[in-house]
């Protein structure tokens, strides 16, 4: 099956139109540009393109992760202007599949980063680069149980329902909690990846659940809003809070004890390796169908280690 996939990749690359080949543009399209996580992806993509003259790189994304139609339009625009390749972090697995199919039919190689596409879409892209979100969610849940025990109440603050990374990450967390403890789960609540929404939701959850023992914030803006709500409510450090992603705010929350830990993905690696995979495809080289970009549980004890510093941003 893998050999067939690679053969199809080679065929699609060879069939690139002269316009696409001459343009040399690799379009990196992410879920939103208004996030340090995605700006770190941009840094990785820029590092991959630096020092070579065959291709250029553009970076784009909508104002919010929930602006799915806008992201679809950006991919369509990239196809219409004949880019050489696309690196895409799809905001919605089903909505983005048809336009990725269009890219495939146009002979444009695509690498998918962070979140997957819908079932059956694997034949339309050539590589998937991501944290194993299910494993990352399970890792956060394991730490939660170790901290709060197997009884009591915890809350789950999520981001956009149905996004591939959310399904794996929050699903992995919830399933692990249910299978390995008697903890009652409040939520999940969906912030739509808006920090202010997450802050308000967490404030309400804390007010309504005075006996809460733990809380999980499943992506950067959600975890930042969660952390700020904990501080404002005077509950920072008084219950176990675990975040996800690693911007400056979340690092500060780990250092001051608001968060016990934050799970940090290799966002730089997603951009760097995603662009390198497209360059390899365009040169006729083979790429692995799946590339795991990893996750690190960053705590106060290890935050200054090389392992943590290599993924924080």
From TrEMBL:
SUPFAM superfamilies xrefs: Periplasmic binding protein-like I (SSF53822)
Superkingdom of origin: Bacteria
Key words, A-Z: Signal
Keyword RNA-binding: no
A Pfam family matched in the record: Peripla_BP_4
Subcellular location: Cell envelope
GO molecular-function terms, A-Z: carbohydrate binding
Coiled coil: none
CDD domains, sorted: PBP1_ABC_sugar_binding-like
Cleaved signal peptide residues: 1-22
Any Gene Ontology CC annotation: cell envelope
Span of domain Periplasmic binding protein: 26-285
The UniProt record lists the keyword GTP-binding: no
Similarity annotation: Belongs to the bacterial solute-binding protein 2 family.
Protein name: ABC transporter substrate-binding protein
Organism name: Pelagibius litoralis
